Amino acid sequence: WEGLPVNAAHSMGVHESQSLLWERMVALGLPFQSYLLPKLRAFFPEQVPADATPERLYGAVNLVKFPSLIRVESDEVTYSLHVILRYEIERALVDGSLAVDDVPRVWNAKMKDYLAADVPSDAVGV
After folding, report:
1. Other residues' Cβ atoms within 10 Å of the Cβ of residue 115
2. Can you tell me the distance from the alpha carbon of 121 to that of 126, in angstroms, rounded to the nearest whole number?
3. How far is CA 11 from CA 14, 16, 64, 76, 105, in A?
4. What is the pLDDT along the chain (126 residues), one digit of tens a residue?
5. Which of 75, 108, 115, 66 lies closest to 89 in space, CA to CA?
6. Which residues contact 105 (CB under 8 A, 6 or more apart)?
7. What does residue 35 show for φ and ψ, rounded to 5 degrees?
8. CB 44: neighbour CB atoms within 10 A?
9. Which residue, 7, 117, 118, is CA-closest to 67?
10. What is the model's pLDDT at position 1?
11. CA distance 23 to 25
12. How far apart are CA 101 and CA 86, in angstroms?
């Protein structure tokens, strides 16, 4: 793979779509849990309960929780809202309708509006 285009990042758009597909849609899906559970039992026999089922594992990895300020730590319900929020801000920066100095204020407002999340400081926001 070394030196081939498949071994290089093509764009953040491709990266984002691939991570959404594999991390969220495949790895957290019920069919994958059916594949994963026997592997977990083989590697962690003491930690995997005897009554564990693919359905229970699926429920455990797909918890809906309080919205996270960090996209990659968010749940299935809010993950896409993080992507939309970032896209809207980036689009506004590129088309000139948003000044760089206004990004933290707009970010905080959108986090509140979309995710009901209060951003305590810019250090954990934008």
Report:
1. 19
2. 9
3. 5, 9, 30, 24, 27
4. 687 777 777 777 677 777 778 887 899 899 999 999 999 999 999 999 999 999 999 999 888 877 788 887 888 788 888 889 999 999 999 999 999 999 999 999 999 999 889 999 888 877
5. 108
6. none
7. -75, -40
8. 9
9. 117
10. 67
11. 6
12. 16
Report long-range pairs for 51-59 (Cβ below 8 Å, ≥24 apart): 54/30, 55/30, 57/33, 58/28, 58/29, 58/30, 58/33
Q: Kindly state the helix (H) or strand (E) to which residue 55 belongs, with its residue range.
A: helix 54-61
Q: Which two tokens stand for residue 23?
A: 């991390």
Query: What's the rounded Cα separation, in Å, for the pair 12 and 14?
Result: 5
The first and second tokens of residue 9, run together, are 């990042």
What does the block give as tokens for 43? 């590697």
